[in-house]
From TrEMBL:
SUPFAM superfamilies: NagB/RpiA/CoA transferase-like. This is LUD domain-containing protein. PANTHER family: LACTATE UTILIZATION PROTEIN C (PTHR43682). It comes from the Bacteria. Residues 57-212 form the LUD domain. Pfam families: LUD_dom (PF02589).
Length: 214
């Protein structure tokens, strides 16, 4: 018996005296909660997202599609980045204005190799305005989950308003459960029992979110 079989056997023993509920799960769990807390237009939703991202200590930028390459070049230059990790499906025009060395997202890359990369640039699946949360799902413009967790500086581009949803329930309706979902609310941070905040423990120390319109 392997470890998985032992765990499942213990679960079955623990549930042995629990009556079987014939109702389907979807009917047994009430889902009459609010799907969003108020009605906002697209522009107000983007403003709400920007405010909540800033509350989480993300650095927020806004630009049009034509301004994006210049802004990304500025952000990488301001950071002093000499290398940027690039997912395979990222729009190549986003890096048209910079000559920073590009590092491919490769399955064989080790954590130590990824840690030596200065920055990572990705798109996103969507963003939740009410919580200031960015969601990645491993699509070609986002790459593997680890590339957004190991480098210390993450630039994430959100297409607004198309990729902005008001609430978590509405986000779940648009996401594919089988994909590797990463939910990001600000840069990585944790605190000890005395509430001393430490950033960069299990993800990037600096998160820059670009809200790109058009």
């Amino acid at each position: 018996m392997n470890g998985k079989e032992r765990i499942l056997a213990r679960v079955r023993r623990a549930l042995a005296d629990v009556p079987r509920d014939d109702r389907p799960y979807a009917q047994a769990v009430r889902r009459d909660y609010l799907r969003q807390h108020d009605e906002r237009g697209a522009e107000d939703l983007v403003d709400l997202l920007a405010g909540n991202l800033a509350d989480y200590r993300a650095v927020v930028h806004r630009c049009g599609a034509g301004e994006l390459p210049g802004l990304i070049a500025h952000l990488l230059g301001e950071r002093g980045a000499k290398s940027v990790l690039v997912p395979p499906g990222l729009d190549e025009t986003w890096l048209a204005d910079t000559d920073v060395r590009r590092v491919a997202d490769r399955p064989e890359s080790t954590p130590h190799e990824l840690d030596r990369v200065d920055s990572v640039l990705t798109g996103c699946a969507l963003a939740v305005a009410e919580t200031g949360t960015i969601v990645l799902d491993g699509s070609p413009d986002q790459g593997r989950r680890r590339i957004s967790l190991i480098p210390d500086h993450h630039i994430c581009v959100v297409r607004v308003p198309d990729q902005v949803v008001p609430s978590v329930p509405q986000a779940l309706e648009r996401l594919v459960p089988g994909r590797p979902l990463t939910w990001i609310s600000g840069p990585s941070a944790t605190s000890d029992i005395e509430l001393d905040r430490v950033e960069g423990v299990h993800g990037p120390r600096t998160l820059e979110v670009v809200l790109m319109s058009g």
